[in-house]
Design brief:
The complex is a heterodimer.
Chain A: H1 4-63, E1 67-77, E2 80-88, H2 90-113, H3 120-138, H4 143-161, H5 168-199, H6 204-214, E3 218-221, E4 224-227, H7 228-243, H8 252-255, H9 261-270, H10 275-282, H11 284-287, H12 291-314, H13 318-338, H14 342-369, H15 387-401, E5 404-405, E6 409-410, H16 412-426, H17 430-458, H18 466-470, H19 477-480, H20 483-501, H21 505-509, H22 522-525, H23 530-553, H24 557-564, H25 566-573, H26 578-609, H27 611-625, H28 632-654
Antiparallel strand pairs in A: 1-2, 3-4, 5-6
Helix pairs in contact in A: 1-2, 1-3, 2-3, 2-9, 2-14, 3-4, 4-5, 4-9, 5-7, 7-10, 7-12, 9-14, 10-14, 12-13, 12-17, 13-14, 13-16, 13-17, 14-15, 14-16, 14-20, 15-17, 15-20, 16-17, 16-20, 16-23, 17-23, 24-25, 26-27
Chain B: H1 6-24, H2 35-59, E1 68-76, E2 81-87, H3 89-112, H4 117-136, H5 140-149, H6 151-161, H7 166-195, H8 200-205, H9 211-228, H10 237-244, H11 247-272, H12 274-300, H13 305-324, H14 329-360, H15 371-374, H16 376-390, H17 396-411, H18 413-438, H19 445-448, H20 455-473, H21 476-501
Antiparallel strand pairs in B: 1-2
Classes of the chains: A mainly alpha, B mainly alpha.
Chain lengths: ~650, ~500
């Protein structure tokens, strides 16, 4: 059976490169072959990639395969050798399956959603190219190929947010996304550079093999002595904070909702934004030896979790509510990783990909029903008009809120969120408890804002304008059909996969994820008390009840509450004024310095004392020396000859060097 | 000399072509003043030079780290000056970039230069001779001759075919670079006196010069190369020269002329004066880091397309000098990759600017906007080169920047820390430029009326697109040629520095 892994590598290569083929065909030949053909070819290739992913996943999990296959040398300089390659293990195929499944559904959905838009081929090409970069990211055998995928998905995010490029708001949002991510990548790149300096390689295998040895040593970075592993992990995590919109580098994600809704579902909910979580899991053998970095990951994750949920409570744009919800759920994933429960973290990543893309695509359907309206204050009572959309979104909401009964049945989010929360609790440290406490609060808020969204959109009074109301109709089946597989995932994937990610995780992951024995709290997580097991569910139900009270029973209440807490409400509604703060701290100074350095630095100081001053001086001299010639060029030629003559005579008669 | 003098033929072929144009193409005999004929001849000659350079590349043996295809003729025996030419792994690429860019420039100029076409073609061909000559010369005086000779055609290109303020720009360019050259001439005279020969090869292998002298010599060469590269704060001639130069002039200026400064740093500063280079390395790195941040910030404030790209060139050249003077393997490799990448990317970006300048005759960014709608091909091409300038992995720009930063990190993590800011800022100014040109509503009628890329324009961009992606995905094709030589240079430099320290 020696040829076996080789064949698997071929399958995996096909998974990665099929979407690229689709992107190239649709992107370069789109005008020639037409929109229909572009849609067909991209959808077919991504679907094929998804089927192969399911096949590869079964294969890898069944046979416990771990292999790394170099393909082509990328960068080779001295001892630095970086290959293009492919690393196949459980973590890779779990991501393959998740990414391609959601991507395939989003591709299909886009046919319907973009039916009335210009540039269909371009859109499909972008989606496929994004999928390619994302797959390159997750199968990378070294940090630099990961960075290739990492920046590549960032580029596609930029291009897709800006898909309607005539809108200035989309232009702003896309640039912001790229630049904020670049700030994160600043740290990520320094982390990569540092890894080579410390480990002499940036291949995962080499780094991971040496991690235990260097764990207790320190190095000089920026003139100070730091523990090696912690500082490297923190630098790498800075990249994750950008990509996964964690507190501090999160400002781009809500604005990214300027892009078409399928983009929000695929990139800004299910896949790209989870790249940071994936990176931490992939680098778990290094993070495990960086306790400081793990603590930081936990704190940032927990704070983001609650921060985003609080803002999500107040927003009225249906997509922004879901965007903040995504940020908050990413917080869950990070603090799970921070307490070494990487398995729970990836589990939540996977279930979240299904139910969040379902919610986003459902929201897209709602927007479609309402001819483009996104403000929930102008919605209401839609369940009659769009019953299918409503039912599908309800499934997504139940999964997001984590509804289920232990031992009986639960939606996908129920299993993964409980695993995350219980792992944090069972961690036994103060930090773990801190994360758990915030996580429980957020479980309540999640249910509240999710049902707030449902009630405002589908129930209560119909607040649509008359104009919109005339054209309201349920979305077409082209759009609704792809939601069913996602809904199925949101219902069953938690129950189906729980054993792999929970009790059987050691044999499931193999070497793909590494947890030090002392850190492992996931066994204990399964044995927390009945009260703690029931608590997330209780909080969720309370949240739903409160939302019912606020938006159905007493619809005047929300207005009264926000008025009573006016200043605080505005603070939250305006997202804690972080955008404004960054504008003052970074953007304005950069422009100011650019202007000053140019006008004063270059034009006045350097030129003033340098060439202009010099030429003014020499012009004055030249005028005095020779009033005979008129053309400037003769002055200089004359001066040059004089100078040369002087030097040559010095050279022959005088000077000794 | 029994074999075919390939290098000399390649060097002087364009000059011969220029002479042909000068003597035999009479404006009066043709209805268009001989414009088409001159263009055709110039293109054919430059393509022939390109073919010859490909032969050179094919015959070049990368594993041999000395000089190859040497040609040596006694020239002025009384002064000990000989005509010596030869190439090694480093210069071979510098010759290639000259022969690749020149035909593309001629192709692009066919449409955009309408007055004194014949003279323009002559200037371009003379320039090509000077560029190839500089990179193949192995005698100090020959090197100086070509290095300075470049000034004359470029001065004319800017001064005659340039924009409104071309006179000021041309003089600034000429004077600035001349100032450096005069100092270099002094340094060459001193070196020649010391070694008793004008041979550069000899100077590279002979024992070192007294430290005191070496430091002064180094500074004199520095003046010339720092202005040419340009390094901060000797860069202020560049934005003016670029802004006023016609497209072909800008492309060769950014693509090849700036690289002559880099070439000088490698060939003379590092190879002949290694100890002094090491002594001044902190200053070089300091200036490089200032250049990266300073020029990027200034680029952010620009309202003129060409000025913006000019300042971005200054920032990119900062990476080159940063890599070279980090004295690390990755830094050296990275510097070479940035040199090659910047040649194609900046060249392509100036060609891109030429496309819209030909149509609307303005470089003001605010006069454009929303072009993505009507010019999708152009928008795509511009986007690829923008991404390469930003250093997106998978493009040529990334490989070089990554390696120089890796080298800098090994020297001192602070260097990489500061240089990495360039990564954020380059994204800011390039995307901001792209946004203002291509996105937003298409509200101006004259912008709406602009046609997309023509076949001829696509032909100009196609090879550059291929090169930029090829170099980004499989840089080994380029690196394998220069690696052994560069490796040897680094070892020699490190050993000499080590000896001095002991």
């Amino acid at each position: 059976m020696t040829t076996f892994p080789c064949d698997l590598a071929t399958v995996c290569l096909a998974i990665v490169f099929l979407p690229l083929v689709g992107a190239v065909l649709a992107g370069l030949l789109g005008r020639m072959i037409g929109d229909k053909a572009s849609q067909a070819v991209t959808c077919a290739l991504v679907l094929l990639s998804a089927l192969l992913s399911a096949f590869a996943a079964a294969w890898v999990v069944e046979d416990k395969i771990e292999l790394t296959q170099p393909l082509l040398t990328w960068i080779h300089s001295g001892t630095l050798l970086i290959d293009w390659g492919i690393q196949i293990d459980t973590l890779t195929v779990v991501m393959f399956a998740t990414v391609t499944a959601v991507s395939a559904m989003v591709h299909l959905y886009s046919i319907g959603y973009m039916a009335h838009e210009q540039g269909k081929s371009r859109f499909m090409a972008y989606l496929s190219l994004f999928t390619f970069f994302m797959l390159m990211l997750v199968c990378a055998p070294n940090l630099l190929q990961m960075f290739f995928g990492w920046e590549g998905v960032g580029l596609m995010s930029y291009l897709l947010i800006n898909f309607w490029y005539e809108r200035p708001s989309a232009n702003d949002a896309s640039m912001k996304a790229f630049l904020v991510n670049r700030v994160g990548d600043f740290g990520f790149l320094l982390g990569i550079l540092g890894c080579f300096v410390v480990f002499g390689s940036i291949d995962f295998r080499v780094i991971f093999a040496q991690a235990p040895e260097v764990a207790s040593s320190s190095w000089i970075f920026l003139g100070h002595s730091f523990p090696v592993t912690t500082s490297l992990c923190l630098l790498l995590f800075m990249g994750a904070m950008g990509k996964s919109a964690q507190l501090g580098l999160h400002t781009w994600l809500p604005d990214a909702m300027e892009g078409p809704t399928p983009v929000s579902a695929l990139i800004h909910a299910a896949t790209m934004v989870t790249a940071g979580v994936f990176m931490v899991a992939r680098m778990s053998p290094l993070f495990e030896y960086a306790p400081g970095a793990l603590a930081f990951v936990t704190i940032i994750g927990a704070l983001t979790c609650v921060f985003a949920a609080v803002i999500g409570l107040t927003q009225f744009d249906i997509k922004r509510v879901i965007a903040y919800s995504t940020m908050s759920q990413l917080g869950y994933m990070f603090f799970a990783a921070g307490v070494s429960a990487y398995s729970a973290s990836i589990f939540h990543l996977m279930t979240h990909a299904f139910f969040k893309s379902l919610l986003f695509l459902g929201a897209g359907s709602v927007i479609h029903v309402l001819s483009g309206e996104q403000d929930m204050r102008k919605m209401g009572a839609l369940w009659r008009v769009a019953p299918v959309t409503y039912s599908l979104m309800l499934v997504g909401a139940l999964a997001l809120a984590g509804i289920g009964i232990d031992g009986l049945f639960g939606f996908a989010g129920f299993y993964s969120k409980d695993l995350v929360l219980n792992a944090a609790l069972a961690n036994g440290t103060r930090l773990g408890f801190f994360a758990y406490a915030l996580g429980i609060m957020v479980a309540f808020m999640t249910a509240f804002y999710t049902w707030r969204l449902l009630f405002l959109t589908f129930h209560g009074a119909a607040r649509e304008s008359a104009e919109v109301r005339e054209r309201m109709h349920e979305s077409s089946w082209v759009m609704l059909a792809p939601l069913f597989p996602l809904a199925l995932g949101a219902v069953v994937v938690g129950a189906y996969a729980y054993d792999w990610f929970g009790p059987e995780r050691a044999s499931f992951w193999g070497h793909a994820i590494f947890v030090r024995d002392a850190h492992d709290s996931m066994d204990a997580a399964e044995h927390v008390g009945v009260f703690f097991k029931a608590l997330p569910m209780i909080m969720a139900v309370l949240g739903i009840l409160l939302a019912f009270f606020f938006y159905i029973a007493k619809p005047s209440l929300p207005g009264a509450v926000s008025a009573a807490f006016g200043r605080w409400y505005r603070l939250v509604y305006r997202k804690f004024y972080i955008d404004e703060l960054y504008a003052i701290l970074f953007i304005k100074p950069a422009r100011f310095f650019g202007e000053v350095l140019w006008k004063k630095g270059d034009d006045q100081i350097i030129d003033g004392f340098g060439p202009d001053g010099f030429s003014a001086l020499s012009l004055r001299l030249a005028k005095r020396v020779s009033a005979l010639q008129t053309g400037y060029i003769y002055h200089y030629a004359f001066a040059m000859i004089l100078g040369v003559a002087a030097f040559v005579s010095w050279f022959f008669w005088g000077g000794t060097p | 000399m029994t074999s075919f003098p390939l290098l000399s033929v390649m060097t002087f072929l364009p000059l011969a072509g220029a002479l042909l144009l000068f003597l035999f193409v009479k404006e009066g005999h043709y209805r268009d003043g001989g414009a088409r004929l001159s263009q055709g001849i110039a293109l054919a000659v430059s393509l022939l030079a390109f073919v010859l350079s490909c032969v050179m590349l094919a015959r070049f043996d990368p594993s041999y780290t000395g000089f190859q295809m040497m040609e040596s003729v006694v020239w002025l025996p009384s002064f000990g000056i000989a005509y010596v030419k030869g190439i090694d792994g480093i210069s071979v690429w510098f010759v290639m970039i000259s022969t690749i860019l020149t035909p593309l420039c001629i192709l692009s100029a066919m449409h955009s230069v309408k007055v004194r076409v014949k003279e323009f073609m002559i200037a371009l061909l003379v320039l090509e001779t000077m560029m190839i000559g500089t990179f193949t010369a192995l005698d100090f005086f020959l090197f100086y001759l070509f290095f300075e000779g470049v000034l004359i055609p470029m001065f004319l290109i800017i001064g005659v075919w340039g924009g409104a303020k071309r006179t000021y720009a041309a003089y600034k360019f000429f004077l600035y670079t001349l100032l450096g050259s005069v100092l270099m001439l002094v340094a060459i005279l001193v070196l020649v006196r010391h070694f008793g020969s004008t041979s550069m090869v000899l100077a590279m292998v002979k024992d070192s010069i007294p430290k005191e002298t070496a430091l002064w010599l180094w500074l004199a060469f520095f003046a010339s190369f720092a202005i040419k590269t340009p390094m901060w704060p000797f860069h202020t001639w560049l934005p003016y020269a670029h802004v006023e130069a016609p497209t072909a002039g800008s492309v060769l200026l950014a693509g090849v002329l700036l690289k002559m400064g880099c070439y000088g740093f490698i060939r003379i500063s590092l190879q002949i004066l290694p100890e002094a280079s090491h002594f001044f390395a902190p200053m070089m790195i300091g200036l490089s880091l200032v250049a990266i941040v300073y020029a990027s910030l200034v680029a952010l404030a620009q309202t003129d397309v060409k000025k913006l790209i000019a300042y971005s060139s200054v920032a990119h050249m900062g990476y080159v000098t940063l890599g070279l003077f980090s004295f690390t393997r990755q830094g050296f490799d990275g510097a070479m990759m940035v040199i090659l990448s910047h040649t194609f990317v900046a060249g392509a970006l100036f060609l891109c600017v030429g496309v819209i300048y030909d149509r609307l005759h303005t470089r003001e960014i605010s006069r454009y906007g929303g072009m993505a709608t009507t010019m999708p091909k152009y928008a795509t091409v511009f986007m690829v080169f923008t991404l390469a300038a930003i250093g997106l992995p998978g493009t040529s720009g990334f490989v070089g920047e990554f390696l120089t930063m890796q080298g800098a990190f090994e020297a001192n993590s602070w260097y990489a820390f500061v240089a990495a800011f360039g990564m954020i800022l380059s994204a800011a100014y390039m995307l901001w430029l792209y946004r203002r040109l291509f996105f937003g509503p298409l509200s101006k009628d004259d912008v709406r009326a602009m046609p997309d890329l023509t076949k001829r324009e696509m032909l100009v961009f196609a090879p550059l697109l291929v090169l930029v992606l090829w170099m980004g995905i499989y840089p080994a094709s380029f690196k394998n040629v220069y690696e052994p030589t560069l490796d040897k240079v680094l070892t020699v430099v490190q050993n000499k520095v080590h000896e001095v320290r002991l």
